[in-house]
Amino acid sequence: MSGKTFYITTPIYYVNDLPHIGHIYTTVVADTIARYKRMRGLDVRFLTGTDEHGQKIDRSARAQGITPKELADRVVGRFHELWRQLDITHDDFIRTTDSRHHAGVHAIIQRMVAKGDIYRGDYEGWYCSGCEAYFPETQLVDGKCPDQGHPVELTKEDSYFFRLSDYQQRLLDFYAQNPDFIRPTSRYNEVVRFVESGLRDLSISRASLKWGIPFPSDPSHVVYVWLDALTNYVSALGFGAPDDRLYERYWPADLHLVGKDILRFHCVYWPAFLMSAELPLPKQVFGHGWWLKDDAKMSKSFGNVVRPDHLLERFGPDPLRYFLLREMTFGLDAGFSDEAFIGRYNADLANGLGNAASRVLAMARRYFDGRTPRQSCGANKLRLKADEVVQRYFKAMDELELQTALEAVWELLGTLDGYVNDKAPWSLFKAEGAASESLQRVIYNGLETLRLAAVMVSPFMPRTAGALLGQLGLEGKALTAGDLVWMGLPTDHALGPEGTLFPRVDAKEFFAEALLATPAPEPVAPEPSPAPVTPPPETQPVARTGQLPPEVVAAAVAEAVKPEEELISIDEFVRIKLKVGLIKNAERVPKSKKLVRMDVDLGEGTFRQIVAGIGATYAPEQLVGRRAVFVANLKPAVLMGLESQGMILAASIEGAPYLLGVEGEVAPGTGVK
Length: 673
Ligand code: ME8
Known about the structure:
By secondary structure, the protein is an alpha/beta fold. Among the domains are: 337-483, Isoleucyl-tRNA Synthetase, Domain 1 (Orthogonal Bundle), CATH 1.10.730.10; 566-672, CATH 2.40.50.140. It is built from 23 helices and 25 strands. A 6-stranded parallel sheet has the order 3-2-1-12-13-7, sandwiched between helices. Strands 16, 17, 18, 19, 22 and 25 form a 6-stranded antiparallel sheet that branches. Helix 2 crosses helix 3, helix 15 (381-398) runs antiparallel to helix 16 (402-423) and helix 15 packs parallel to helix 18 (437-457). The chain is flat and about 90 Å long. The N and C termini lie far apart (68 Å). The site of ligand ME8 has 20 residues, from strand 1, helix 1, helix 7 and strand 12.
């Protein structure tokens, strides 16, 4: 290790909802960068965690009849589990309910108080309870909240304020001196324009809320949730604790990775708080774009709805990691589509990397008895390309252009493919046998290119890199940038066992199975309104955080508040024939993790074949003899080659199906209303 440190953070995620693709994205990006920096020999510290205070969490917990801490404890487990499944290598996970964090928050506020930057006052402004944000009168639209048109009320609150207005010029000077502080540049300009337009003092306490960290010296207030949350980046290092060695070693952070929604909190408030507390400022904040879901497409097109948890379960972490990093240009928005996922999986992973690996390795095994050739090759066309790609890869990775780095690796794989076609090693073998020096060189070059590709993809797809290196007989060694030098592959060396990196997927079958196998996960708690992230109680609503693009908000609102015309009449309802069915036989569908094939008695004399994605919750033997409710007049569908002549009804709890029970010995075929 060089002794040079690299401290990287993700946002700490709210615990009012289960983690989704957006959280996965930020965390996977951070993990890939952390792994790359480690590979370059840096002393890396990678932090993630959860944001557990504030009104949003308080409300969600109330809606479920549990305490906010109980809610947080429940959801935090899901984050830990997900990060484990995705091979995330964070060094620490902070929760804002940790006592170490309280100490840090108090310590920072005390420094701000000592600086004379905090005063007590009354706040009067227009409050939107739908968005939980204050708006100045000038921003109201027709007397309503500018974000979602909710009604606003004139509200007065006793509060502690931070003299943010005093920091306007200092912030502008700082941005000017540190043009790399905010990336990408478009966001830098956005923040500068915003600060230039003027900053007002910021309310940093809430008297009306109990769920938070008590304000130092006045426990009748709690600390404003964003001041609380931002401090995690230093409290996790022991700032404010007796042992602050980690703080001394790693602060200031090299990179705060955030979504563009919370950029201003990180680029305006956080540096101003730190300036006030006389602490060093982070070196860079990167505000990446949003994953948008083509909602209409996903809900309308039958058979193509796939949730990330299903992708993870079916493919393991690497294809999802790859897809997220390859599909989104870092900094811009992108649409998440399951078709695109399967398309990339088949094209880039099964055909691209997977095929290149199996093709070259198979020849090596065959021609040289499962060993690498005895001849290496220093100078050749493939090496020239590889050297050039490695340089481009380093440059792109250093500039956080992860997509560009992947493109470079795939370009190299394309060159490898052309090279093998040109050199036609099979003809060389046929003509001269394994002793042919040309054959040895060609195969060596192919294997060496695969080795370099494996090392380059290792921060993105660690398991795949390990598997490919294993097949090359190079398992188990920690990778460094020094491994990206041509001729690292030993000659006459035993190759590892054979394996398929990415089996091809039949998209049609996959979607059919996924649709039945994975019901939509339930949110942890229903939100009282589709309000965005709790916005600050501020005099100037600089960052109406969590604002989704209008089309996403519209879709969410439409989802949450069904317009009257979407209600169905009783006539429509009775068109669905629900019947009690008795399951006579049940068996797993071969090659499917979740599908079960059942023979069901619906009182019709003959049994119906019904195929359902319930096999992860129920073993076939638990199903036989059981009564359940079925849709009897659904058009048949073919799943993994089997016709399903109906559908079994199940409740869905976090993606797992639970069958509806039927009390008593109700005769098969009895109608259900
Ligand atoms: O804002 N696309 O927490 P949060 C891409 N607790 N990234 C997304 C995304 C999407 N559709 N949705 C969420 C909070 N993210 C605060 C942060 S930090 C001191 C406090 C990612 O649970 C993205 O990184 O709402 C975004 O900034 C973050 O999740 C917001 O997570």
